[in-house]
Write a structure and sequence with these properties.
single chain, alpha+beta, four-stranded antiparallel sheet, 16 strands, disordered N terminus
Length: 213
């Protein structure tokens, strides 16, 4: 009897030790939404985890547009919208925009706004640059006819210009909304605030710097 008790005690002790003091040091990243209709199993995921998000409440006569500035996702429909992606090594926000398709939209002739790029919050700029992510300085919009605009001007092109400045250890990227079809890299970084000559800067109606990293 004593031997059975002793073995049971050792087994219980071993199980207790194996489960005691185990700490999960895996870094988790937040998943947030701009709409409470989004649903996911968790609000935090480790990098590399598969993420599934649903958006199940669908109104009639309504057009929906979903986007994220943080991750590329697959979108499908199964009684509601389903989004899948692999969690990157940073926080992710999913956004939903909706518009009643029965309403008259005076902007239809010029192109609908299909995506809004909000300015990056000031306290996140340093983090974004460290993660090699674009920092948005000016709120701007993508239109359904392929053009772009800010709150002040309209543009034909969105130019993503990448190169390496003299003495730099990595490439830099400058994103301009522009009515000029091409902007050389040297002009792009000089006009971003590095030039002391006003001649190197663009008239806002010509081009405007909206993002950089």
């Amino acid at each position: 009897m004593r031997k059975i008790f002793y073995l049971s005690f050792i087994l219980a002790l071993a199980l207790g030790i194996s489960g005691c003091g185990v700490k999960d040091d895996t870094v988790k990243y937040r998943l947030t939404f701009n709409d409470s209709i989004f649903e996911s199993e968790k609000t935090e995921y480790a990098a590399g985890e598969n993420v599934t998000v649903r958006y199940d409440i669908i109104a009639t006569d309504t057009d929906y547009h979903f986007y994220s500035d943080d991750v590329e996702f697959e979108q499908s429909f199964d009684g509601g919208y389903v989004f899948t992606f692999t969690m990157p090594e940073h926080d992710v926000t999913l956004n939903a925009e909706s518009r009643n398709s029965m309403e008259y939209d005076p902007g239809m002739a010029e192109g609908d706004v299909v995506r809004t790029y909000e300015a990056t919050e000031a306290d996140l700029c340093e983090e974004y640059l460290a993660e090699d992510r674009l920092v948005t300085m000016v709120r701007y919009y993508e239109l359904s006819d392929g053009t772009w605009k800010t709150d002040d001007h309209e543009y034909k092109y969105r130019l993503e210009i990448t190169g390496r400045m003299s003495g730099a250890v990595k490439d830099s990227t400058f994103v301009y909304l522009s009515n000029i079809e091409e902007i050389p890299f040297e002009r792009a970084y000089m006009a971003a605030g590095l030039s002391s000559s006003t001649e190197d800067y663009f008239d806002p109606a010509e081009a405007v710097l909206v993002e950089m990293k």
